[in-house]
């Protein structure tokens, strides 16, 4: 058989324009390539190759384009992991504390923006060095091996005990993917951290480093579970600014204001122990008491509670300050001094705003037992009363409420609507939502029925029962608008799973020993 070059020399090309000759030559070369390299011209379809009986290829691997995707990423990761484990071909060594770790410049630079600048930018003194000493905190030294291992494997074990130093290293060396994972972990495991006395450190670190998502989650947990946090040994570790930021909030969940006062007194006692007994520390303590107690809402205490406080040792020691603050509360409860309170309403209006009190005066508990056994579109109805004012001279003003809870969707049956024009058929409708419907039973007086409705949603994380979320609505009840509907109170699909998964499915919204209890609290506070 002659060679391809010999064939080309024996071809006679007719006298045609130059462009036509080029086209003919192009197609001729394609034919040669097809013959001698077993490749097909675009548009040709190869005959199907018979497959052996033992072939394991799937139909997806075999197609008309003769293409196959090869995924060797798992093997590549194994190679990188082996490089790390065997410390082979290392071109840089990092000394951290008393330990030295071999690594590879291209791995460090590809994963960390700081290492990339340090090892590739001539402005850094380390860029040519093969041995670099890094200064780390002791807690970061303990996890540095785990931190570096993530560079090679993409895997890391995060727990409530090591997430803080790992996040600190990820922040310092700008390992963004690891920062995202630590942030996500911390936001989801705050109850577990609080139970293990780490809430203060998480909150303070996120505040300093600007992790707003973690910061907000920590603050919310503190506010919504204030009494639980106050009973931990970590309670004394919250600094003054953080503590004031919390107690200044309207959405603290607490039994009543006197309970909050007692929790604050306990925090002050713990701070006094830390400050010592020197003359300077005593002055600091006096300033601390006044700075913190400014945010206690004495008008929200009953006259009896205010009278009992006069016997408190703390109030006896700081009599001048406390008597002025308590006098505001006594005047609030008496209608004779309403004019004298106007300056306080303007300067310190928060003193007259109820928090999220779980006492019977403002709140009712909504519990559904045996959740998995109730039928679709089931309705649970609760009736309770609440005060429309915290003032003692208005204690007779109350309202009765009806709460209807639809935890498994809302079903409107087909019905007929009779109007003066005739009869209209209203079709059936199903809403896949968790709805809470609140109805004012009384005839609302417009000026007195503007309220804030708060729903406290309980859940479990890491075995810790806590208030997971607070849903708030401000509503003005009138004779024409006596009903408030809150839809999507909980994620419908998270709470309601397929029958085949019940009750195996773990949802954080169900509590109790057998995880079949839905627990809510509704709090209604007047707004004036």
TrEMBL record:
CDD domains: BACK_BTBD17. It holds the Pfam family TRAF_BTBD17. It comes from Ceutorhynchus assimilis (cabbage seed weevil). The chain crosses the membrane at residues 6-32. Coiled coil: none annotated. The keyword Translocase does not apply. This is BTB domain-containing protein. Keywords: Membrane, Transmembrane, Transmembrane helix. The keyword Transmembrane applies. Residues 90-160 form the BTB domain. InterPro entries: BACK, BTB-POZ/Galectin-3-binding, BTB/POZ_dom, SKP1/BTB/POZ_sf, TRAF_BTBD17.
């Amino acid at each position: 058989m002659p060679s391809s070059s010999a064939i080309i020399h024996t071809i006679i090309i007719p006298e045609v324009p130059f462009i036509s000759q080029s086209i003919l030559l192009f197609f001729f070369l394609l034919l040669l390539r097809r013959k001698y390299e077993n490749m097909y011209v675009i548009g040709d379809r190869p005959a199907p190759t018979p497959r052996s009986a033992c072939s394991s290829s799937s139909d997806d691997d075999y197609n008309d384009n003769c293409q196959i995707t090869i995924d060797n990423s798992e093997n590549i990761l194994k190679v990188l992991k082996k490089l790390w484990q065997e410390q082979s071909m290392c071109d840089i060594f990092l000394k951290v504390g008393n330990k030295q770790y071999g690594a590879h410049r291209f791995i460090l630079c590809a994963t960390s923006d700081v290492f990339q600048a340090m090892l590739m930018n001539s402005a850094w003194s380390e860029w040519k060095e093969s041995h670099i000493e890094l200064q780390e905190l002791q807690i970061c030294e303990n996890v540095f091996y785990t931190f570096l291992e993530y560079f090679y494997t993409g895997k890391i074990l995060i727990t409530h005990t090591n997430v803080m130093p790992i996040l600190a290293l990820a922040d310092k060396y700008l390992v963004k993917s690891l920062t995202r994972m630590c942030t996500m972990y911390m936001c989801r495991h705050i109850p577990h951290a609080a139970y293990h006395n780490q809430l203060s450190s998480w909150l303070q670190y996120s505040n300093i480093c600007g992790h707003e998502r973690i910061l907000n989650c920590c603050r919310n947990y503190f506010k919504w579970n204030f009494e639980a946090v106050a009973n931990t040994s970590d309670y004394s570790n919250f600094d003054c600014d953080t503590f004031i930021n919390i107690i200044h909030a309207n959405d603290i969940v607490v039994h009543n204001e006197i309970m909050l006062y007692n929790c604050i007194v306990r925090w002050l006692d713990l701070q006094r122990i830390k400050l010592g007994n020197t003359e300077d520390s005593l002055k600091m303590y006096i300033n601390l008491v006044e700075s913190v107690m400014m945010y206690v809402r004495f008008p929200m205490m009953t006259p009896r509670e205010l009278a009992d406080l006069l016997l408190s040792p703390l109030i006896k020691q700081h009599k001048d300050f406390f008597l002025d603050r308590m006098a505001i509360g006594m005047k609030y409860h008496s209608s004779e001094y309403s004019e004298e309170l106007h300056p306080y309403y303007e300067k310190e209006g928060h003193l007259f705003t109820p928090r999220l009190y779980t006492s019977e005066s403002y709140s009712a508990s909504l519990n559904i037992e045996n959740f998995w056994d109730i039928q679709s579109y089931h309705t649970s109805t609760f009736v309770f009363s609440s005060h429309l004012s915290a003032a003692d001279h208005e204690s007779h003003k109350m309202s009765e409420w009806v709460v209807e809870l639809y935890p498994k969707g809302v079903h409107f049956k087909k019905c007929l609507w009779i109007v003066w024009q005739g009869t209209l058929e209203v079709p059936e409708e199903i809403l896949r939502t968790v709805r809470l419907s609140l109805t004012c039973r009384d005839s609302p007086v417009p000026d007195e029925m503007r309220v804030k409705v708060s729903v406290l949603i309980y859940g479990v994380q890491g075995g810790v029962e806590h208030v997971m979320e607070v849903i708030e609505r401000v509503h003005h009840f009138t004779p024409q608008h006596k009903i408030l509907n809150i839809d999507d109170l909980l994620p419908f699909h998270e709470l309601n799973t397929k029958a085949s998964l019940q009750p195996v499915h773990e949802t954080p919204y169900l509590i109790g020993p057998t995880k079949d209890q839905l627990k809510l609290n509704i709090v209604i506070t007047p707004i004036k």
